[in-house]
Design a protein that fits this description.
binds adenosine-5'-diphosphate; 13% strand; binds magnesium ion; alpha/beta
Length: 278
């Protein structure tokens, strides 16, 4: 086990809240600060993969699915690692995914130690990185449980909408079960407010309500990500916000998030509060 690598799952079972955008831009942000970063696309929709400029993720034949399948069947994973499964994008490494990952999720249910397949799949390469970020799919299914088991900590992107605190309680329940049963050291680094439209009272009210409900238990990052059309344009351009529009408010927000994440430190020095969910 390598203690210097911190594995962070970017998770929320709700779709469209900025998980993929955060994984990519935090990853590139960390690399710009000199960190060695690996991103893992753990969503069969392959949005992270597509956002790096790979136009047809479904045509890739070496992906996270093959890596996890090799782990499940006991075959030699070195073969997969040597067969260029790890791609490169703006200074970060990443393991792509495509639709074949949904078959992997079904196969997981019949395999031994099914919750820890992802964790075991990346054990051999952890020493190459300071941070591994896992972009989760929007569900509470087995693939996401695998991400929670592989992770040292979580970042939870959350769009401040009326229903977001309801969904948050479901997610925290799931996190609580994983902590109790499989990964007792799992921490929540914090909730990241995304797509924040600070001009509207509604967004301000909901953000304040979320903070007063969850703030006593969970840290909120100081760098909410503003809503901006620039963020929407990046995936199409196949670029991070740092190369697409380096001085825009979204780039500045992701830069300060990056600094906050570095300040939290590696997993052994993690200052984040332990979430206590029964
Ligand atoms: P998730 O991975 O949680 O489904 P995404 O990161 O894919 O969410 O974001 C959902 C959509 O919102 C995408 O089209 C993305 O480009 C857009 N988006 C993400 N962040 C922002 C932002 N700060 N402002 C405006 N649009 C955003
Ligand atoms: Mg996504």
């Amino acid at each position: 086990m390598d203690d210097s690598c911190k594995v962070i799952a970017i998770t929320n079972q709700k779709g469209g809240v900025g998980k993929t955008t955060t994984t990519l831009n935090l990853g590139v942000g960390l690399a710009r600060q000199g960190k060695r970063v690996l991103l893992i696309d753990s969503d069969p929709q392959g949005s992270l993969t597509a956002s790096t400029g790979i136009s047809s993720p479904d045509e890739l034949d070496k992906t996270l699915a093959e890596l996890m399948t090799y782990e499940m069947t006991g075959e030699d994973k070195d073969y997969i690692y040597e067969s260029d499964v790890i791609k490169s994008f703006e200074g970060v490494d990443f393991i792509p995914s495509n639709i074949s990952l949904s078959g992997t999720e079904s196969a997981l249910s019949n395999c031994l130690s099914r919750e820890s397949v992802l964790k075991r799949s990346i054990e051999a390469i952890k020493h190459d990185y300071d941070f591994i970020l896992i972009d989760c799919m929007p569900s509470l299914g087995l693939l996401n449980i695998n991400a929670l088991v592989a992770a040292d900590s979580l970042i939870i992107p959350c769009e401040p909408t009326f229903l977001s605190s309801k969904g948050m309680n479901l997610l925290l329940g799931s996190v609580g079960r994983v902590k109790r049963q499989i990964n007792p050291n799992l921490k929540i680094d914090g909730i990241l407010l995304t797509m924040v439209d600070s001009r509207t009272n509604n967004a301000r009210d909901i953000s304040a309500a979320l903070k007063s409900e969850l703030g006593p238990r969970i840290h909120f990052f100081d760098s909410p990500i503003p809503r901006s059309v620039k963020a929407q344009e990046c995936p199409l351009a196949g670029q991070s916000i740092f190369s697409y529009e380096p001085n825009c408010k979204v780039a500045l927000a992701y830069e300060s998030l990056t600094k906050e994440v570095i300040k939290l430190g590696g997993k052994t020095k993690d200052k984040s509060r332990n979430v206590s969910v029964r």
